[in-house]
Every structure is written in C-alpha cells, then in structure tokens.
Amino acid sequence: MMEIQQVRAFLAVAEELHFGRAAERLGVLQPPLSRTIRALEDDLGVTLFQRTTRNVKLSPAGEALVEPARKMLEFQSLALDSVQRAATGETGRISFGFARSSSRALAAALVTASRGTHPGIAFNLESNVFAEEGLARLVDGTLDLTLVRWAKQPPGVTGRPVMIERLCAALPEGHRLAGQSSIRVEELSDEDFITLPAHPGSTLRENTLRLCHEAGFTPRLVQAAPDTQTIGALVASGLGISVTFDSVSANTREAGTVAVPLDIPEEPSIVYLAHLTDHGKPSLDAVLDLAEAVLPTVD
User: Fold this and answer.
1) What is the mean pLDDT of residues 224-228?
2) Where are the chain's structural domains?
3) Measuring CA to CA, which residue among 165, 163, 158, 166 is closest to residue 109?
4) C-alpha angle with apex 134: 132 to 138, nearest 5 degrees?
5) Residues with Cβ < 8 Å from 40, sequence gap 6 or more?
6) Domain over 167-261 is classified CATH 3.40.30.10
7) Radius of gyration (C-alpha) of the chain in whole angstroms
8) What is the pTM of this model?
9) CATH fold match for the domains 4-87 and 92-163+269-294
10) What are phi and psi of 216, to 5 degrees?
C-alpha cells in the first residue's frame, strides 16, 4: 500500500522531473527522497522513473500513476477538512424531535436559521414525539434535541424554556360561548368533547379529563381523533368542542373555529428545548448557540 508521504514524493519528482528540485520543494535532502521513491517502486513492483545521468523521465507506469496520485492527495485533503469541520461543529447530523402541532413553528425556525448559518449541519426531523418519549430518547441517544414539556427536570438532561402555553377551549364559531373573553370549565359540563386517543406521552387528553373532574363532572367523550388537525375539522363541523393549548390552536386553527382561554388558576405549561447535559457533539453546540437568538428564553 502506498503511504501519503510516498505519494507526495512521487508527485514532486513527477512534476519537477529532477530529484534535486523535488527535494528542495519538499524541504528534504535528496538521498532520503531517492530512497523513498525506490521503496515505492519496490512496493509496487514497477519502475516509475527512467533515470540517466542527465535527466529523469516518467516511465509508462509512472505516467499512469500521476492522476491517481493527485486524486489521493485531494481525497486526503478532503478527509482532513471534513474531520476538522466536524470537530469545530461546522458539519454533523442532529436528530430533532418535537410534537408537530404545538412545536413545529419553533422547530422550523431553528432548522431554517441553522441552514443559513451552518449549511453543513443536517437535521433528521421527527414530528410526533411527545414528552416521555422525547426525554427517554435523549437518554438512549436516538434523539439529540427535542422540544418537550416536563414537570420535573430529568437527571442528565438540560434545557431552556422557549415557549409558554395556556389551555383554551376550541369551539365552533357559532357556539354560545364563542364570544366570551374566557370560559370556566364548569360551563362546559353539557358539551360533547373531541379528544386525542389515550397516549402515555400526550397531555391534552389527560388535562381535559382532569380539569372536568376537578370542575365536578365527567366529560362526554364523543369522538377520538388521530391528530389536532382532524380535531379542528370536527370542531368546525359542529360535532363537539376540544380542550387544547393556545400554541396548538394558533398553529392549526381550522376555519370556522375559535379559541377561548380557560379561566383556570394553574400555572401555564412550559416547552423546553432539551438535550443531554454531556452530549459531546460540536454540531449540537453550534445549533444550541444559534438557538439562543432564534428561540430566546421565555419567563
């Protein structure tokens, strides 16, 4: 196998056709250069140069080696550049998970800004990642970055609050409560509810049930829908109402629906841009630095 040092020596002699000038170009003495060329010829089992006391010429085998040798040096330079850019965070691949309805606008803003600032960083996007799954996948390494809600910060995970969400009721435009500035949960006791399917990582259905029970009634669940877009369409058609986050309503509001804040005393929900504390990825550090401006911390 040819070593890079041998390739450089061969190309210097091939381009200068003079061992003395080639040695000067490489910053070495002529005898070691001659030995390097001899060793390369022995390794390949061919003569690369035709030597006389007056001149040096490429042999047919030497002529055949010139272009491949140049490509070898180009590939080595490309490899070194790629490694250095990866080490400084200029290139890399980041797996980014988020809940599509509430967080997709935040995710889109960060990915777009990163593309403009760090074009060598590629994102693998997953748009149906809920809190428990997202945190678990940060820990097992299948996600690098996620937008999630948590009640208590998990060990080994860190993040900044980037969005505050509040619960609201999604109603058909002509609903009796649509014109109010806020709604008490007990005012919804006679309504038909549309919810997401039961899912251990999704909080909207659980919030709906909890709030209704705390208000003294069991909600009448008339339909489960696979996503918030479908829920919005069903609400617009008059099938029922839904409890959702204001961020979800803003991102997926269906024509013919209105969102009215719920009058509840509890703290709003916070969405965090989360990652492992010790992730060891320069490209992720670059994206996190950019995120300070694109997705600023909220209070």
Assistant:
1) 88
2) 4-87, 92-163+269-294, 167-261
3) 163
4) 120
5) 2, 6, 9, 10, 48
6) no
7) 32
8) 0.68
9) no
10) 95, 20
Q: pLDDT (tens digit, 9 = 90+) per residue, 229-286?
A: 899 999 999 999 999 988 877 766 788 999 999 999 876 788 999 999 999 899 999 9
What tokens appear for 108 in the block? 């889109």
- Contact assessment for residue 279 and residue 258, using Cβ atoms and an 8 Å cutoff: no
- DSSP 3-state of 258: strand
Q: What confidence category does residue 228 fall into, taking pLDDT thresholds of 50, 70 and 90?
A: confident
- Torsional sign, CA 281, 282, 283, 284: positive
Contact 30, 23 (CB under 8 A): yes
Whole-number Å distance between alpha carbons of 91 and 290: 14
pLDDT tens digits, one per residue of 113-153: 999 999 989 999 998 787 788 889 999 999 999 999 887 88
Residue 57's SS3 state is: strand
- Does the structural domain 92-163+269-294 have CATH classification 3.30.2350.10? no
Identify the CA nearest to 233 among candidates 194, 185, 177.
194
DSSP at 83: H
What six digits make up the tokens of 230? 């479908």
Give the chain's length: 299
- The rounded distance, in Å, linking the Cα atoms of 233 and 267 is 29
Q: How many CB atoms are closer than 10 A to CB 43?
A: 12
Strands 257-261 and 167-172: antiparallel
